[in-house]
Design goal:
Strand order of the largest sheet: 1-4-5-9-8-7-6
Strand content: 15-25%
Helix content: 40-55%
Low-confidence stretches: none
Distance between the termini: 88 Å
Number of helices: 12
Bound molecules: 2-{3-[(4-chloropyridin-2-yl)amino]phenoxy}-N-methylacetamide
Shape: rod-shaped
Number of strands: 9
Largest sheet: 7 strands, mixed
Order of helices and strands: HHHHHEEHEHEEHEEEHEHHH
Mean pLDDT: 92
Radius of gyration: 44 Å
Length: 344
Amino acid sequence: MKERLQELETEALGKVEKSGTIDELKQVRVEYLGKKGPITEVLRGMGKLSKEERPVIGQLANDVREKISDAIDEKQTKLEDEALEEQLKEESIDVTLPGRPVQVGGPHLLTSIIEEIEDLFLGMGFEIKEGPEVETDYYNFEALNLPKGHPARDMQDTFYITEELLMRTHTSPVQARTMGQKNGTEPVKMICPGKVYRRDTDDATHSHQFTQIEGLLVDEHVRMSDLKGVLQTFARKMFGAEREIRLRPSFFPFTEPSVEMDISCKMCGGEGCSVCKGTGWIEILGAGMVHPNVLEMAGYDSEKYSGFAFGMGPERIAMLKHGIDDIRHFYTNDVRFLSQYHKA
Ligand code: 2NL
């Protein structure tokens, strides 16, 4: 029996040694240490042994079993380590490879234009004010000399929330609100950029939602020449130092007198071309002297105070600056359009 056990040990250890995979090792374990294995069999036959031999063989059988088991465990750990090593080698990444480029966004063209205009007016001492897009009928219309039933309201139809609440049609209500906070005594020097709304059918030049920048200066002794100086400074900083401006009489319910401002066409230098439709001039904005009714409604004495105001559309400015032919490009956000105006 002793020899048989030693034989089994040698045999089993040999097979453990030869096992190349965890599966093979499992089979060795089942074969030698399983319930039906040869060692169990030896132990079962111990009944036939003498009292003296029994503990010796029993001890030996247990030693052999333990040796085989330890050898299997050791080999299993080794095989597992090797497998892990192999897997790590396969999955290793080359950290020296250059990374995939990340797509970098940038400000929307309209945002850039609005910020450029803001900077120009900040440089002239104007402050920037914002206000609600949902407005009252009073601040959007009444306070701007557009009483209920005024015919000019037709051109500024909008989206109504209630009879008295609506989506603002211009940013002027921000200015009316600001003037109203000044007790009729302090001067105002502000611009207000923001989104505005009209009941319009979208096409290449119309949108039901667009942006506007309005400006307002109220103080004692403000004259039309002040308006002209500010607008000329703006036009030259925005479009080029060589630009001329031209004021044409116009009408707005909230200013009197009212004007429209053109800049000389850069494309043809004033000769007339397709951009300026042969006139040599391009319309940029509307402006005027604040109507006395508007000043009075905001609490100012229109005998003592006067002011000028202007309004422009950043979409139009951007379209002229960059030769964009359809206002809808600003809102459909095609990256091929947007990315052309990201500064490097
Ligand atoms: C245009 C014309 C304009 C104003 C806006 C204004 C605001 C107040 C008082 C008086 Cl609070 N006027 N704003 C004045 C003249 C013209 O906009 O064509 N905008 C795109």
